[in-house]
Design goal:
By secondary structure, the chain is an alpha/beta fold. Helices cover 54% and strands 11% of the residues. The protein has ten helices and seven strands.
Length: 339
């Protein structure tokens, strides 16, 4: 009898979850404040990482930027400082209006660290420096990513390992470094920037797809673990964008007749959508929304039906032009260096 009662309760909660999800479509949830909170972003030197840094800076978060490239990371920090100065200049007006509580400009700082997230000890050492020099991290954005751009049998083992280390294993190291304090305080937010290729795959990028599937699996398991521990103060958001026009996959093409309806995403649009999800504690965001449908269809259709759809869309070999360009660029560099 108890199990029947529990089944009824579970059914009600599932239906209620659908109602709440529908309500969020109709009424936009209020965005939470991250002002004054320490936000750490990996891969902050370029692409989406840089744009995330600028968006969090506009919301008066205290930024900690990690990247393997010191120069590009410092360039991002310069942009963040410019935003902080603009906020400081606007602060007297806002304070005079009495509409918002404004943090003093001196509390807005950006810290940069050169870190190779693919190396476990480098992550732990840098994380310890952050705790000593900045404080405990409240928002962790695991964004750093790489792609080898080789067919499986042409890809050196070292590049496969590198892709897995940066795109997947690094999430374990950064989370293990900063999650304990979040658990102690029951407060924090962990963001996993994955990819639509972590939900469904395509040919020619086996290492990249595997790493992103791994990141998605890690994120989902972590989310369940936090729920099981009843740590509702720690939020998680999984970001799975379609192809983003950052140059990472330059040359990637789907069928030309379809491409106008599904063009590469503008990085700014992708990050704004992700920020909206993060600040409203949305568990997952796929951009564009069509990616939800693709993921659902992949789950219910026979494999051969999925293959037919891929071929119709030109998605089965969409990475081949990108791989060819990478191979040509590698050959040109070797020729220049006299190899």
């Amino acid at each position: 009898m108890n199990i029947l009662l529990e089944l009824f309760v579970v059914t009600f909660r599932v239906l209620w979850a659908f109602v709440l999800a529908a309500a969020k479509w109709l009424v936009r949830p209020k965005e939470k404040s991250v002002a004054g909170q320490v936000c750490l972003i990996t891969g902050a030197g370029s692409g989406l990482g840089r744009l995330f840094a600028l968006e969090f800076a506009r919301r008066r978060a205290l930024l900690v930027l990690w990247d393997i490239n010191t120069q590009s990371n410092e360039e991002t920090a310069g942009m963040v400082r410019h935003i902080y100065r603009e906020l400081a200049e606007a602060a007297p007006k806002v304070a005079g209006d009495g509409e918002k509580d404004v943090l003093p400009h001196c509390s807005l700082q950006v810290y940069t660290y050169t870190c190779d997230v693919g190396k476990r000890e480098n992550v732990y050492t840098t994380a310890e420096r952050v705790r000593k020099e900045v404080g405990e991290v409240s928002v962790l954005v695991n964004n750093a990513g790489v792609v080898s751009g080789h067919h499986l049998l042409e890809c050196p083992d070292e590049l496969i390992e590198r892709t897995m280390m940066v795109n997947c294993h690094a999430h374990f190291w950064t989370t293990k470094a900063f999650l304990p304090k979040m658990l102690e305080m029951n407060h924090g937010h962990i963001v996993t920037v994955a990819s639509s290729l972590g939900l469904f795959s395509t040919a020619g990028v086996e290492d990249y797809c595997a790493s992103k599937f791994g990141a998605v699996g890690f994120h989902e398991s972590l989310s369940h673990e936090l729920k099981a521990a009843e740590k509702d103060g720690i939020k998680t958001t999984l970001v799975c964008p379609y192809l983003v026009d950052t140059g990472m996959f330059r040359g990637c093409r789907i069928r030309k007749e379809i491409e106008p309806f599904l063009p590469p995403l503008k990085p700014e649009y992708c990050v704004k959508q992700a920020m909206r999800a993060i600040l409203t504690d949305q568990p997952m965001i796929c951009t564009p929304r069509l990616m939800y449908m693709v993921t659902f269809m992949k789950s219910i259709l026979p494999f051969e039906a999925v293959v037919c759809m891929y071929r119709f869309l030109g998605a089965d070999k969409c990475m081949y032009p990108f791989i060819a360009q990478r191979k040509q660029a590698t050959n040109n560099n070797e020729a220049k260096n006299g190899i």
